[in-house]
Amino acid sequence: MKSTPPFDVTAPTRAQQHEKVQFQIAEILAEATSWKQAAPLILRALCEGFGWDLGTLWQVDQAGQTLRPLATWHRAASAPLAAFAETTREYKFSRGEGIPGRVWAEGTPLWLENLMPVVFPRADEAARANFHSAFAFPLSADGNVVGVLEAFAQQTQAQDQNVLEQAHLIGIQVGHFILRQQNLRDVSRLAAIVHDSEDAILSKDLDGIILDWNPAAERLYGYSRDEIVGQTAALLYPPELVEQQQANLEQIANGESIRHYDTVRVRKDGTRVDVAVTISPIRDETGKVIGASSIARDVSQRHALERAQKFAAIENARLYQEMQTLNEELEARVGQRTYELSEAYKDLSREVVERTRAEETTRALLSLSNKLNSTLDIEASLDILIQDVIQIMGVSSGLAGLRAAQGMRAQKYYTRGRCIPFEQVWQYGEGLPGWVWEHGAPYVTNNAPNDPVMLRDLRMNAGVQTAICAPIFDSQNQVICFLYVRDKIGAAPFTDADVEFLMALSPIASIALVNAEAYQKISQAESAVQDSYAQLRALAARLQTIREEERTDIARELHDELGQALTALKMDVAVLKNGLPPRNKKLRERAQNLSDQIDVTIKTVRRISSQLRPGMLDDLGLGPSMEWYAQEFQTRTGILVETNILEQDLALDPAQATALYRIFQETLTNVARHANAARVQAKLELQDEGLRMEIADDGQGFDIEQVRGKRSLGLLGMRERAEMIHGTLEVQSQVGGGTTIIMRLPLGVAESS
What we know:
Layout: H1 10-31, H2 35-50, E1 54-60, E2 67-74, H3 79-88, H4 98-106, E3 110-112, H5 123-128, E4 133-141, E5 144-153, H6 161-196, E6 200-205, E7 210-213, H7 215-221, H8 225-228, H9 242-253, E8 258-266, E9 272-283, E10 289-298, H10 300-308, H11 310-332, H12 338-373, H13 378-393, E11 395-403, E12 408-415, E13 418-426, H14 431-439, E14 443-445, H15 452-455, H16 458-461, E15 467-473, E16 479-488, H17 496-579, H18 585-612, H19 615-619, H20 622-637, E17 640-645, H21 654-675, E18 679-687, E19 690-697, H22 704-709, H23 713-724, E20 728-733, E21 739-746
Parallel strand pairs: 17-18
Antiparallel strand pairs: 1-2, 1-5, 3-4, 4-5, 6-7, 6-10, 8-9, 9-10, 11-12, 11-16, 12-13, 14-15, 15-16, 18-19, 19-21, 20-21
């Protein structure tokens, strides 16, 4: 009787554990937001579930040429495992190289129960880590290997069919996750490209309703995204082209693309813009056309270039027609004039080459225009102009000059890349520049030694064989500049194309020169205004000084002369009163009234003298003067004034002390007149940046912008006083929130003595 093999009770448990690993990895992939986040968790789940000690995830790079390590995991507290993991991070494998490369190339799992006889990269490192077995399987998606998962064990691991089956399923799960992450990156990258593109890109449905568009479309058409989404694209078509949209949509619905056609679109402000448009169908997952994408590029500049090239195109057309005619004649007269027609054809081909060069020259006009418009300096504009003209036309030398009060004036001469200082003035009708000025037309000669106009200026034109002098006109068609070039390199003659080039250059150069001249005049005017303002400020400062001196003199005379006279008068009245007999009551009362009136007058004189120039400002300094005036103001107006005045003496000159005192005085006067305040807080303190005076009230405040528009003389006067002593004045106020005046005098201007 046959014996029944013992039942392996661990087999279902191991299979269930392996299936649990698959489910655990599925949960990791479901919750992960990125491949880098998921990779370490997958390695840990697989190694712990299948009994491996170290695992590595290898990913195929974007170029599809190399496997690179994305993440490694190993059991904790093991120096050999950590060393092997560190070494692995430095490796990369091509297809078929090493264990991961073999799995990538073959697309099948690889199980090595015994690593000892196997030769592979990292074999020495694996031996030092005491690895006995290795296992690797592909991560696949849509039939392509996108990565490899590799594991090593320090114990011998026999090949397990259940593990192989689970690894196959895990490889598909992880492979599709990698592919989805790559697709998400591609979509994000495409979205970024669309967002940052300089071309206007929009999408619309088959009814022409706009679904989305990028910032470049906002800039081109003028509509914001919120304004245009949901609107019909017909808004962008001029009336005569609205039907074209429907035709385009029908073509797109049939799955056809419309590529690179020039048309016109309408901006939000009603202006038209030339665009080159490409329209492509948008398809869903099934391939059905569900909408259209439109890419538009502003070609206005290109059209401007085409217009600038018009003269060259016309010449090319004429030459092409002549060439066609000559070819027809050649066919009709073969054998009769072969040599003559062959030479004519060579000449014609040479001329076509010259015209092609003219087209290239025209393109250079735009570059020259950009250079000229990049500067607002007249001399720099002339330098750029003549240097580029010399290079484009291929001449040996040249110069440019401006019309001035003395005549046409040039200051530099360029030859063979060198700038030579040069000074010459041509009068009206004198030399080539004078001739161009007089006639308002270009002058060209290919026989300079015998040219009558050239002979008028032998010193300037010595050794010259060919020359062109062309005018530059302003908006009033007046000659403002000339360009003079001579002697083409290679001794070629000047042609009509050269003249046409210089005349085509005239409006470009004119705009740059006129702008530079206007900027120079504006700069000079601004400088003159600044000088005038500085002079006015100096005059105001001088007048203010004189005024303060006069106030001081008047205050001193009131105090000394009138005060002494009143005191003497009071003493005389007292003597008179005391000399009257007691019985004469009326005279004694009148004498007493007169004495009282003299007391009032003395107080008035003292008050006026103090207001004109408080003596304590000169005797005791700014702080005590401010304290005194605050107390006097509080007594006079009933408005509480709280002071926090710096006690130490300050090294202020009389002008600075006077200005600060007057600003303090003017501020309190404004509080009494306008603020309707109950309390004022005044501070005078020395900070790191300098002296700071602050006066704040709890009054009704005002609108600073409204007062600034009215040019308040009070505030303007205080600011002028502050600037005269190199200080600054800041006004802070809001309606219902009071007003604060802050005066700052920098260190170095005001320092503690």
